[in-house]
Design brief:
single chain, alpha/beta, Immunoglobulin-like, TIM Barrel, 3 domains, 8-stranded parallel barrel, 5-stranded antiparallel beta sheet, 28 strands, 24% helix, elongated, disordered N terminus
């Protein structure tokens, strides 16, 4: 392979594919672009193609040709699509390569393949020629996941950062467990804890560890930090075989300016907006995709499609949707230009998100797309045919902020801000919400969850148990970031690992047991999930005891026998012989109490036997007399 004659053209493209790519509706770009193992005239090798519409010359360089741009030039298609392609015979899997691009201004760029399936480990930046070799064993999960991933199924998501969940050496940020080692530890832990899904913070290749994967350069490339792509496939496969769904964080909002990445890919603003009022992210020092350009839309839609198809992901969590749809996101008055209607909506970005959801739900009707959208922009989860964005769920940031504000307040003042706590049910049914206690809330000076709570050590733990129980009994899907389940005492540090040593202390191990119990309760009680997005699944039964700090509500499933009564005491006072009238059933039994000794409560006021007085049998109305411990949640069935 030392001269041009060794590069043979063997195109994968036809006219229809080119048209779809340019129109922004090609969802399978990964089957055409990048490096693909194939045979040409009976000779094995790799076919290469890349979109570089502003290039004058493009070559493939790598360890196989001493990085010599003269040896393997690509040929530009004559249809003015800007696609360069060619075949390199005898090239084998595992060779590293880049595209050597000469711009029309004779600038030279060495770029990683935007469609590469695998990449070198940072700080190296080349792409790796790869051909997937994996046999999936999750047929049973795939056949039933429509039910498992439905909106009337339990969604209890464990969010984790693979590098720092657990390390071989917690003091060495360059030490990583492999995908296999993580799998061996993670699968039994998720089963024990009762989570239904895991959400992986970005596993798409990224050069800068401290970005946590949100500054992505490899939109089709599983990070090499933990192994080869098939190792990640096996991890997802193992999770599926144990009835655990997998959500992947995905970042179509921006990309970094690394020299080997997408920025000025062929010497021009090819992937990003040329207008830096739209094309530059001031917060993240990164660049914004040009959502108006069809080829860029096809690139992004193909990326999401790829992870769902090749990695069997059960959904994608779309990062920073607010920044995508707003022209004025993090910009002062004179730093942005309104659209033609005079508003701040990025209409082409909104159109892209709708096309994304339309494509995903058409091709993968058994998955979910989840929007991390931090504002009150309407109709995020409304169907596209009704004018909405078409997402399956949206993070409920308002609930999270209001809940933190409320719980940080000491008891005597809580009665004055009770509306902050109950307000979520005033707008809950505007969207299909997921309640997130995510990584963003335990970094950068925001403090770990346990230290957001007021009071003595015992009161802090009691408050945190109370908060978690409130989340698990509140309508909507749930998300808990790793370490929150055992009350990590330090902020999350991506350079280390979780403070697993805390589990030697009773307060932390029993907090973990409390979350485990709540997880299994949520998963096993239909009333907590069957109608989680339906108004008929929730009913206030006590909301006017502001001074006492007692609230109560019912969660209702499809069958009355499954109804649950939840009683909250957000005060520091204990109450004995508390009388409550309850309609719906004549028999009630306490099935959970956060004040149990097994959860590091004091074990007082547990209702084993309590009086039940029938007031109206025909109306299924009764009176119960119970004890309610301070800072607690009680659940009756």
């Amino acid at each position: 392979m030392n001269n041009q004659s060794t590069v043979w053209v063997h195109s994968l493209f036809d006219t229809e594919t080119i048209q779809l790519f340019q129109a922004g509706t090609l969802s399978s770009g990964y089957d055409y672009f990048g490096a693909h193992f194939c045979k040409c005239n009976g000779i094995e090798g790799f076919y290469f193609s890349v979109w570089a519409p502003n290039a004058k010359l493009v070559s493939v360089v790598g360890n196989f040709n001493h990085w010599d741009a003269q040896q393997h030039p690509l040929f530009v298609r004559l249809d003015h699509s800007g696609i360069w392609e060619g075949f390199i015979p005898h090239l084998t899997k595992g060779n590293i390569y880049k595209f050597h691009i000469t711009s029309i201004k004779n600038e030279v760029f060495l770029k990683a393949d935007p469609f590469a399936f695998f990449s070198e480990l940072r700080p190296a930046t080349a792409s790796v020629a790869w051909d997937f070799e994996y046999k999936w064993k999750d047929k049973k999960w795939m056949s039933k996941r429509k039910k498992k991933n439905a909106l009337n199924a339990p969604w209890n998501v464990y969010e984790l950062h693979l590098a720092s969940w657990m390390r071989p050496n917690k003091f060495d940020h360059n030490s990583f467990n492999s995908y296999q080692q993580i799998t061996e530890r993670l699968v039994p832990y998720i089963i024990e804890m009762g989570f239904t899904h895991v959400e992986l913070m970005p596993v798409m290749e990224y050069p800068y560890d401290a970005s946590w994967g949100y500054q992505c350069t490899g939109y089709f490339s599983a990070t090499s930090r933990f192994g080869v792509p098939e190792d990640l496939m096996k991890m997802i496969d193992e999770l599926h075989q144990h009835d655990i769904g997998v959500i992947l964080d995905w970042v179509p909002s921006h990309f970094p300016k690394d020299d080997h990445g997408l920025y000025k890919f062929d010497g021009a603003h090819t992937y990003e907006y040329a207008d830096m009022q739209k094309g530059f992210h001031p917060d993240w020092n990164s660049y914004v995709f040009n959502y108006k350009r069809g080829e860029v839309r096809s690139f992004l839609i193909s990326s999401a499609h790829f992870w769902l198809k090749y990695y069997h992901a059960d959904g994608i969590r779309v990062d920073a949707v607010n920044s995508i749809i707003r022209l004025d996101f993090s910009r002062n008055h004179k730093e942005w230009t309104p659209n033609e209607q005079g508003t701040n909506a990025n209409m082409e970005a909104i159109s892209f998100l709708k096309e994304l959801n339309k494509t995903i739900y058409s091709d993968f009707p058994d998955v979910q797309t989840i929007a991390e959208e931090a504002s009150d922009w309407p109709d995020i989860t409304k169907p596209i045919v009704e004018g909405g964005f078409g997402f399956g769920m949206k993070w409920m940031m308002g609930w999270m902020h209001d809940t933190f504000s409320y719980f940080k307040t000491h008891h005597p003042r809580r009665k004055h801000i009770q509306n902050t706590f109950t307000f979520s049910m005033m707008y809950f049914y505007d969207e299909k919400f997921m309640l997130p206690l995510s990584h963003d809330e335990v970094v950068h000076g925001k403090s770990p969850m346990i230290y957001k709570m007021p009071g003595t050590e015992w009161e802090k733990f009691a408050n945190l148990r109370l908060l978690y129980a409130c989340m698990y009994t509140h309508p909507g899907a749930k998300l808990l970031f790793m370490g929150n389940e055992f009350a990590q005492t330090s902020e999350w540090n991506d350079q280390s690992e979780l403070d697993w040593h805390l589990l030697q202390y009773e307060s932390h191990s029993k907090m973990k047991d409390c979350v485990k119990a709540l997880s299994h309760l949520y998963k096993n009680e239909p009333a907590l999930y069957e109608n989680q997005f339906d108004p008929k699944g929730f009913e206030w039964t006590e909301v006017d005891k502001r001074n006492e700090g007692v609230l109560a509500f019912k969660r209702k499933g499809r069958k009355r026998k499954d109804d649950l009564l939840i009683i909250l005491n957000i005060s520091n006072d204990n109450y004995t012989n508390w009388i409550m009238h309850v309609q719906g059933k004549l028999q009630w039994k306490e099935i959970f109490n956060t004040n149990e000794i097994s959860y590091w409560g004091n074990g007082e006021h547990i209702n084993v036997n309590f009086p039940i007085k029938i007031l109206n049998k025909k109306a299924s109305l009764c009176e119960i007399k119970i004890d309610i411990p301070a800072l607690s949640v009680l659940i009756f069935r």
